[in-house]
Inverse folding.
């Protein structure tokens, strides 16, 4: 997506907006459930905002949405330090921060050193600032004042735009961001690390994703959509299966063994699988 086409989300409602006089939200997302699969982790979000009231309310709202939220920072220096320590999945950056350096500088640091999606939060919509912000390729903009629905939508939009930019977009419900599969679950995205996936099994228009803890998750899509989006550890061994070679325990001419699960090898995929295994 071209930077010129990055959406600017603006408030369209008159209630539940972020400003200094009214900061309460009406929440519509479902809360996080403690019974979810242990290897499906919450998405970790960083907030860089120098206005304490706004930062605290963004923090509380994101927690209610079911995200893992890092303690907000107010400056570029604090942002650089916390990013190195926490490695967030996505960041919400106010363009105006405390100190000489801005949220644009922090976005540039993310782009150069880490390359994860970030959203610019701003009350300044002048063209010069907007053009400077576009230079560092944010995944979305969110203009103050905004409500909870727009905050929620901006996170989904940023993840989707980033995934498309990196040619890892699968569909509206399933994205690949860096080394993890982001799955839409109970009206929000959750993270499944590639290393935790043992294999994927096709079931018509759905895919069963089997994890190393013995649990599984169902997603919509086809194996063709996933084949080139996962890491190099994954390979198609059958028309109905993609396997993670990190979990491979044994192999013969008709099947592979993954954590005590036997997966068939299709004739069309056997040669390619053996070539991969011979490469080590």
């Amino acid at each position: 997506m071209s930077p010129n086409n990055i959406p600017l989300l603006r408030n369209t409602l008159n209630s539940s907006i972020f400003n200094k006089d009214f900061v309460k939200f009406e929440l519509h997302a479902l809360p996080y459930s403690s019974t979810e699969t242990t290897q499906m982790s919450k998405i970790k979000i960083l907030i860089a905002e120098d206005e304490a009231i706004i930062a605290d309310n963004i923090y509380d709202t994101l927690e209610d949405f079911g995200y893992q939220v890092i303690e907000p920072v107010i400056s570029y220096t604090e942002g650089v330090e916390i990013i190195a320590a926490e490695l967030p999945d996505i960041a919400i950056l106010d363009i105006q921060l405390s100190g000489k350096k801005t949220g644009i500088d922090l976005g540039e640091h993310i782009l150069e050193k880490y390359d994860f999606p970030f959203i610019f939060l701003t009350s300044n919509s002048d063209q010069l600032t907007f053009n400077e912000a576009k230079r560092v390729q944010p995944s979305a903009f969110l203009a103050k004042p905004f409500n909870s629905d727009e905050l929620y939508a901006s996170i989904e939009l940023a993840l989707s735009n980033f995934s498309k930019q990196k040619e890892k977009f699968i569909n509206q419900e399933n994205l690949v961001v860096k080394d993890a599969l982001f799955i839409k679950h109970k009206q929000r995205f959750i993270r499944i690390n590639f290393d935790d996936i043992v294999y994927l099994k096709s079931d018509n228009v759905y895919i069963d994703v089997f994890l190393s803890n013995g649990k599984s998750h169902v997603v919509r899509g086809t194996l063709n959509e996933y084949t080139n989006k996962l890491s190099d550890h994954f390979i198609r061994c059958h028309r109905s299966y993609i396997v993670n070679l990190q979990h491979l325990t044994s192999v013969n001419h008709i099947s592979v063994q993954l954590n005590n699960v036997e997966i068939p090898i299709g004739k069309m995929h056997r040669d390619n699988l053996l070539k991969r295994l011979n490469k080590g």
Remarks:
- Residues 124 and 130 are 8 Å apart (CA to CA).
- Residues 3-165 form a domain with the Rossmann fold fold (CATH 3.40.50.2300).
